[in-house]
What does this fold into?
Amino acid sequence: EVQLVESGGGLVQAGGSLRLSCAASGFTFDDYTIGWFRQVPGKEREEVSCISSSGHYTYYTDSVKGRFTISRDTAKNTVHLEMNTLKPEDTAVYYCAAMIRCKGEAHYWGLGTQVTVSS
It folds into this structure.
């Protein structure tokens, strides 16, 4: 059974940090790019960051550059998203997904984890 399980969300004050994790199972983790997306009610899902299957290529949307860092742990089939200097506008449900490439179609999705940044 394919599973992507997000964890690490929560409530944090503006300026604080959170570390999200995405644990993958049921498919060949090393074959897939992993992306982090976020969505707020009434808006389209946004691709925030992604990391290639090799880990050599990373992408960040402009609004998180310099604040978020994505990494992958091949031994644990896990991808992390380190989020620093959080802002209220980062509040969203964060999802991870397995894709063939960044900005491409997602094959598998997790159920999401809520991140709330208070001002």
User: Anything to note?
Assistant: The two ends are 40 Å apart (CA to CA). The CA atoms of residues 40 and 59 lie 21 Å apart. The first strand starts at residue 3 and ends at 7. The chain has no helices and eleven strands.
